[in-house]
Fold:
Amino acid sequence: MNAVIKASGLQKSYAGHRVVDGLDLAIQSGECFGLLGPNGAGKTTTLRMLLGLIEPDAGSATLLGLPVPQAAREARIRVGVVPQMDNLDPDFSVAENLLVYGRYFGLKDAEIEARIPALLEFASLTHKRDAKVPTLSGGMKRRLTLARALVNDPDVIFLDEPTTGLDPQARHLIWQRLRELTRQGKTLLLTTHFMDEAERLCHHLAVLDKGCLIAQGSPRELIEMHIEPQVVEVFGEPAAAWAAQAAIAFSQRFEVSGESVFCYVRDAQPLLEHLQMQKELRFVHRPANLEDVFLKLTGREMRE
Ligand code: ADP
Structure:
């Protein structure tokens, strides 16, 4: 297998607190790899170490076969980055942002100018070519940041929460573009809080918690491995009291969260028949998804 990004025993501490704790990863060429984890799990720190922007305290990493951070500059010529916060230059137009960024890679202006129309088309921003950044919507800024990350025609693209803060329409457009990049054979490494995003886009997922890798596999493998196949969500004020008495008789496992009870079952039929008779309870029956896995592995309590 052809690992484009590799990490072995990566460790990083801040102020004596270990935020990445012995991480091993191998990301194959052409795959979309998702790094999941609650806030503070160490995802951004991991990305920064893999990009060679910060030095690990222990362990080693390679990016496109080159050791990082030692050869990070050389490796990053073939890498695009979409950071968590848009850091576009507000004084420049859309096209100028691409031009200026391309110069960081040592590209000649004529070369960048020749690429700009295709980049704008990819980002659906052709009509905004001369618009200043502050006049763009959040979705447009994200798409410009993505186009900018492609200015050097990278083989690998790092995306730190690429759709955080976007409305559903804007997210769907970004997803389409990311799928297109995967189809072109680019390798994508992304972090996300959105389990639907991870489930739709990623071939392979790694779940981080407190700096440790706690699970990995394809979305389907994670669901099959870690959770019962069906979920019945029971709602309403009496749900918790009902759960205390009855849920265990019908579920392999259940979790109470406020006025909702999540019943995880292999066969939902007996529970559904029982619930039909409980007129004061509302319920929804659905297949288990990645969010169920994530909540099981990392817990329901808030982080940070
Ligand atoms: P995630 O991206 O999963 O939310 P981060 O990698 O950003 O997690 O952060 C992991 C932990 O490391 C957090 O507790 C964060 O506060 C801490 N941290 C990250 N960067 C620094 C830094 N430069 N200095 C001190 N602490 C940091």
User: Anything to note?
Assistant: The first strand starts at residue 3 and ends at 14. Residues 34 and 205 are 5 Å apart (CA to CA). The chain has a mean pLDDT of 94. The pocket of adenosine-5'-diphosphate is lined by residues 14, 19, 37, 39-45 (CB under 6 Å).
